[in-house]
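Researcher: Quick test of sequence recovery. Tokens follow.
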């Protein structure tokens, strides 16, 4: 099975691929981040997976409540990096 993504630990600088921030899954956590991953695979969107500790101070700038999933991407219209969080908002962003 091929994939459009690569995985990294911790914060990742933007290099042209959508970055999705997730946590390591276990039997007790909520894996809502799977929805944007599935959509990116179906759309053929290149992405990077950043497995993070949501308690990291830098992540507060990405998501004020420090939940996952969150995406980081480049907005050509605004000419700046954008972040999107909450799985439904991530799906809508990716679909547009």
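Model:
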């Amino acid at each position: 099975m091929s994939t459009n993504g690569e995985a990294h630990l911790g914060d990742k600088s933007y290099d042209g691929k959508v970055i999705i921030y997730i946590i390591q899954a276990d039997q007790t956590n909520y894996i809502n981040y799977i929805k944007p991953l599935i959509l990116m695979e179906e759309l053929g969107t290149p992405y990077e997976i950043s497995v993070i500790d949501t308690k990291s101070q830098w992540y507060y700038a990405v998501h004020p409540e420090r939940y996952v999933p969150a995406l980081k991407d480049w907005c050509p219209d605004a000419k700046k990096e954008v972040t999107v969080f909450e799985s439904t908002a991530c799906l809508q962003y990716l679909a547009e």
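The chain has one domain: 7-95.
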